[in-house]
Each structure stands twice: as structure tokens, then as C-alpha cells.
Amino acid sequence: MPDFSIWPQCNIGCVFCSNPVSGFRETTDKYSYAEMVRKVGKYKRGLRTFVKFDEVGDYFNLTGGEPTLHPDFLKIVALLRTEFPRSLVRVLSNGRLFSYEDFARRTMGVGLAPFEVAVPLFGYDARTHEATSRTPGSFAQTMAGLENLRRHRGPGQRVEVRIILTRIQLKSLSGLLDMVLEKLSWVDQVVFLFVELEGFAEQYRDRVCLTMTEAAAALDALYDKVVRLPEARLYHFPLCAVPPRLWPFVYNTLAGFKVTWLDGCASCAHRPQCVGVHKSYVKHMGAPDIRPFAAPLAVEPSGDRYHPFGLPKEARAA
What are the structural domain ranges in the chain? Predict the structure, then answer.
């Protein structure tokens, strides 16, 4: 699954952004449509032209910066759909440009299926959302963009809401889940991601950093809301940092080169089901909450490496 960065610039300034602090946004000359065609062609011929997740080739993540800002964004989506008609194409976008209804309609029209758009929400209103995006008006545009995606999605097209767990987000997390349940219950899934402490996130470390145990405990405290969300998922969490009743929501999605294992992990009874520890977490936080299990807990495994534990009964019934 290539992570395909198609544009380095962005129209918001998130404090947790993992892109490089200097130089990255000034590299637009490396992202021409001709260059995208060249990369896709090489990938189709079996050459490794994407750094991340090349070992899995069943779908593409279009990332940035903000991928929808590319002057030829729709042409790039059409290119991937033509060259890989059966592959999932997922756009990781802040959603602002989808507030223009024609753009949302055309994107879904070109994307066909299977196609997904994943949009992050940082808060339940302009004040809480824009404390992270640092862009006035971005909350209203993102919400309008989500509504346009709902209106114009077709069969085989999914919309995902992403919630990046930082110290800032925890302050408004309960209200954000209430807002999603009330206004966005139609989305296909809600994904909680522990912040990757890279790029801009390193610069704002004091504002965003928290332990994985703190983030997981905040979700556990809102368990009754989490189980009611559309297909809730937790990304980037090692199992020992998560209360066992949340294990069925854990998915293992990190690329191998981003992960490390600490002393004791080799003997952990749940290592086969665990994603490991993000290297940036060890670097910045010291991973104080990583503790191996001497014996397996009474949580039924699913046999799926990427979703190691099945959903609880109350989540299936929600």
C-alpha cells in the first residue's frame, strides 16, 4: 500500500503535523503531474518508488501536504483509477476544498470505487478545532466538505473521520464524540490515531505530547460513546498501553521501519498481536508505559494480524 505524497503544501497549519519543518513545502517542483505519471508507471512495472508500505500493494494513500491542492489532483486520481482499476484509492485530506460542492462531486465521480476520503476533526466547534488547525474558518469548511462528500458519494465509496490524539485534543474529546454521534453518524468509520512525534509535532512537543496510556485512558473513560461510533478504530497503539476492553478496536497499521521493540517485548505473551512501539515515541517520551505481558489475557484473538481481536458484543450490537 504505497503512501503516495502528491503535494507538499497545505492550507492549514496543524501543530501535530509530521511533515518536515523546513524545506518540504517549497518542493512543489518535484510534484508535477509528469512526475506523478513517471512514479506510477515505475510502480506498475514492479519498481519500488514509494518509501512506505510497499510490501502491501492493494491500495494507495494519497497524502501531502494537502493532496487536493495539487493543480492536477483530479487527473492524478483518474490516473490511478485507470492504471489500478480494482485497487482502493484513499485520499487523506483536511476536507476544506470539498466545501466547494462541484469539487466534491467531481472527486467522487472520478474516484469511482473502491474509493475513500479520510478527514481529521480536531474539535467540536470552531474554537476547539482551530486551536489545532490554526486556520480561521477551517472548521466550517471541513464540516461543509464532509456534508458534500456525504451528498455525492456513491456505492463503494467511504468517508472516514480521523481524530489525532494529542494533549490538546483530550480537552475537547468528549464534546467531539458527541458531535460526531449527533451530526456525523453517517460516516463509515472513526479512527483514533496516537500522534506521531515528527516534523512540526517535534517543534510543538510541549503542547501535543502525552503518553499512550493517557490517551488510551481518555478513550476508555468515554467507552460508552466509543462503542456507539461507526466502526471505531485505534491506530498506532501497542497493546500494553490500552485497557483490554479497547483491544477489539486496535488495528495494526504502522510500517515496519517506523516501529521498534523494547527490552522485554521479545518475551511478551501478546507480541504476535502487537504493532510495536513507534520510534518517535521512544525518542521523545521514553516509552514509560511499555510493559510485556507474562501471560496472555482472556481476550479472544481474531487471527487477523491487522485486526488481532474481534469486536465485543456491545459494539457489534451498536
Answer: 3-210
CA gap 87, 74 in Å, rounded: 17
Task: Summarize pLDDT for 266-304 with one digit per residue, the tens.
Answer: 999 999 999 999 998 998 889 999 999 999 999 989 999
User: Is 190 within 8 Å of 231 (Cβ atoms)?
Assistant: yes
Q: Is the dihedral of CA 225, 97, 20, 14 positive or negative?
A: negative
State whether residue 192 is helix, strand or coil. strand
Closest residue by Cα to residue 277 from 268, 294, 293, 290: 290
Torsion angles phi and psi, residue 173, rounded to 5: -65, -45
Residue type at position 70 = H
pTM score, two decimals? Answer: 0.93
| pLDDT tens digits, one per residue of 24-69 | 565 788 899 999 999 899 888 877 655 444 455 568 999 988 999 9
Q: What is the DSSP pairing of strand 59-64 with strand 250-251? A: unpaired
The pLDDT value given to residue 50: 57
b/e sequence 225-235, b meaning 16+ C-beta within 10 Å: bbbebbebbbb
Query: Which of 133, 137, 128, 121 lies closest to 16, judged by CA?
Result: 133
d(CA 36, CA 38) in angstroms, rounded, equals 5
Angle at which helices 138-152 and 101-111 cross, to 10° = 50
User: What is the Cα 313 distance to its own chain's centre?
Assistant: 25
What is the 3-class SS of 73-130, one letter each residue? HHHHHHHHHHHCCCCEEEEECCCHHHHCHHHHHHHHHHHCCCEEEEEECCCCCHHHHH
Closest CA to 236 of 289, 195, 273: 195
Rounded distance between C-alpha atoms, residue 153 and residue 117, angstroms: 10
Give the CATH number of domain 3-210: 3.20.20.70
